[in-house]
Amino acid sequence: xxxxxxxxxxxxxxxxGDDWRIAVGVVSAVAIVYLAAHRGFNGWWILPFAVAILxxxxxxxxxxxxxx
Amino acid sequence: MxxxxxxxxxxxxxxVEMVEALTIVLAVAVTRGWRSxxxxxxxxxxxxxxxxxxxxxxxxxxxxxxxxxxxxxVLLIFGLQWLRKAVLRASGLxxxxxxxAIYEENVAQLxxxxxxxxxxxxxxxxxxxxxxxxxxxxxxxxxxFGGTQRxxxxxxxxxxxxxxxxxxxxxxxxxxxxxxxxxxxxxxxxIMLTSFGIFWSAEGAGVAWPGSDASILMVIAFVVGIAVGxxxxxxxxxxxxxASQ
Lengths: 68, 245
Prior knowledge:
The complex is a heterodimer of chains A (68) and B (245). By secondary structure, chain A is mainly α. Chain A contains three helices and no strands. Chain A has one domain. The longest helix of chain A is centred in the last third of the chain and has 21 residues, at 46-66. The radius of gyration of chain A is 16 Å and the shape is flat. The model of chain A has no long low-confidence stretch (mean pLDDT 88). Chain B is mainly α. Chain B contains eight helices and no strands. Chain B has helices at residues 2-32, 34-59, 64-90, 99-112, 121-148, 152-173, 182-205, 215-243. In chain B, helix 7 crosses helix 8. Chain B is flat. At the A-B interface, helix 2 and helix 3 of A face helix 3, helix 5, helix 7 and helix 8 of B.
């Protein structure tokens, strides 16, 4: 059980890393693109836009914490 | 065009990780001897080769769109993690990766362990872990990049080329490769992983990119723009933080 926990924790750190919100945001954005594409909407711009927002929020959140 | 970018991304990612692994191996070799370090490297490389040889061909049997959707999404999450750290390092909000400092720290820890027996398991384990964990990121990139492009061989070739270059540099310098612009390389690799993650996951989800394959260049340019913009904002924050101390 302990080994399994360590194994899971290793892969979590390896893929997801410090900010889990990015992972949740990416999965949600990809799901939206998938649903849109299968309803005939070619939303090629959605993922780049989502990445810009997710990365900016993650970095800016850290900056805000650091400011006096 | 894709093949060139694929080769470059795998080569750069592998170089960065190999430089880090070399630092650990050198620390082990200097303090505990080359024998345990060499066994550690050999065992780790064997495990990594096994992982690539199992998962690489297995991926080629999956339908290309499902593969791109899943692998692209994982690659995008993984790439954003790299890029986030790279942006924070470039803006001064996170300490830069310093191979000389890491080397000294490793040497001190290994020396603190004292006497070594005939079969130095401690030295072996540290070298194995260093090479295996750094190499795992490379194996991940080879399998995902190569699998999604149906060209694991090219990705593995790029990784081998990087291994040879770093090994030769390591043998010549015989010290941690502190002159390699590691933080800049990590920034580039983060951009590549993120861009390919966006491109493949969208394609796997059923999107048709305007301009087809050539749009990867637009995606890369877009990601570079965001990252550079965030670094500029981050530097201002860092200056304000330093001024307030």
